[in-house]
Amino acid sequence: MTADASIEIAGAGPAGLAAAITLARAGRRVIVHEAQAEVGHRFKRDLQGLENWSTREDALAVLQAQGIAAGFRQLPCRQGTVFDAWGRAYSIRSDAPLFYMVERGSGPDTLDTALLHQARGLGVEVRFNSRLRQTQGPAVFATGPKAADAIAVGYHFDTPMPDGFWAICDDDIAPKGYAYLLVMGGKGTVKSCMFSGFKQEAVYVERTVAAFRRLVGLEMINPRPHGGVGNFRIPTTALSGMHAVAGEQAGFQDTLWGFGMRAAITSGVLAAHSLITGDDYDRRWRQALQGTMTTAVVNRALYSLLGNRGYRRLLRYLEHRPDIRALLYRHYRPSHVKHLLAPLARWRFHSQRRDESCNHIGCSCVWCRHGRGQHA
Fold this sequence. Notes:
7-stranded mixed sheet, single chain, alpha/beta, FAD/NAD(P)-binding domain, disordered C terminus, 16 strands
């Protein structure tokens, strides 16, 4: 690849824009194709968490080291409340932020808009309503999830409630997952994040709203329904033909709870570096992400076995921990025990995604997926 060759990126999500920013900072000409009319189209100003426990370094410092500016509004979250199925409240706390609450979508202070502004400021050309269907030159594919291994369904709303976060661990509200309520700056998101029972999503959302009204006095003004999906897998390869695949299109996510923004951004940065240096992208992402992702699959398999009584025991344990961030960091680190459990966990947890392939020689298709494999 010559230094003046245009690099095309499919998708203007965090992974695609992180790749574009990294390439532009290295002096490359970049064109981003986004099929929708705006960034963050599928999120509609959703409040989400940028997790801060998978590295010792603070998440915002890691972004800065990757060349990604944190020009978005964020709320550091150090303390919150989690309820069990019987309505008992457990306080969890962390010395440093456990996560940063951020807004997604096309609003002025969202994570997506901040990435877009940074990319454009570096000279990246972003084409909206443009779907990249075929490319002959260097490219990165980052078009989002291709299957639903988990769904988060509920409402966005205005509210007079104070900033904060609350969660409920109850399989009758969020099967194998959790329900959550996030509030920041007079805006709120309430959802059931479920890993099974998708056909009954309306029932679980209704139960979630009723539970938060009863437990914390949920106040929703002008509620707007919203839902999203998560796709979790560890690919055998994150290459489609000769092209790097980043973000959830490749399956890079947190299989335990779905905190995947950092993995998406990191994979975009790594994909860009592989184009700049000619390094092996698969080697890069495996070194940076595979250990944590494999551990998350084991954590997901173990969590799915707990049930409501198990969640209650877990919350009792967490309530007495002085620093939840430090505890989660340890549980997200690869270990000998989790390495031994990984094959069983992969057997128990199967992604809904099934890879497709095409018969084209020297494939240049954007739609096909060649990540043959791994089952998580």
